Amino acid sequence: MISPGAGASPPAPDTDTPAADPGARRPTGTAHGSGPTDGRVEVLVGGIVVALTVLAALWLRHHPGPVVLDRWGSSLVHPSLHSRFWRRVTDLRSIPVLVGGSVLAAVVVVTRDRWRAVACLVAPTMAVAMTEYVLKPVVGRRYAEVLSFPSGTTTVVGSVATAWVLAAPRLIRPAVATVAAIAVVLECMAVVALQWHYPSDAVAGAAFGAGFVVLVDGVLHLGAGHAPARQGADALSGGSPTR
Questions:
Q1: Mean pLDDT of the chain
Q2: Domain count for the chain
Q3: How many C-beta atoms lie closer than 10 Å to residue 191's C-beta?
């Protein structure tokens, strides 16, 4: 006896199912489930902050005197030249904090996002170098006969604090961001209380440090995101990658 289905042809393959695209973009540098970023938001936010700082620097080059923020900030933070507490706060500007903080932030995030690890490792030092060797000489603003805009002290703290916020896992990122914000605010207050800087110097340094780290992180992710798509397109066309 022959069963009803005997000798029947096997079902035809489903031609409506799309084939895998070898050139499809995949998140690079980020572990599965860690919330990969394509870098666009970081480039936008970081770029705006850095651009505003540079515009302020160009304006102060021709108007180096105190601004409204300086008068307001000086009325809130009273001079305390010999305060041990404020001097302890400014210890955060040290090279060990800059280098050690950057390296540790990179170690924390490297298994989840290697491009963010690179940003955490190199961007804080780059931000400080830009402050000390480019922005300060170009602006030429002085406080107590020392080049002051933007503050290198707050650039260190702002950049390292931002690196740690980026490196922190999402679960604890709000707590890390809170601690980082407190550290930055205290550093800004310290350099004003010790009369090292105008308040605008302090705020600009922290903003530039933070914005620069975010901008570098975004640029690295944008570059990483375009690379796989380009390689896939070359493979489909049969051509060799452009050098």
A1: 85
A2: 1
A3: 28
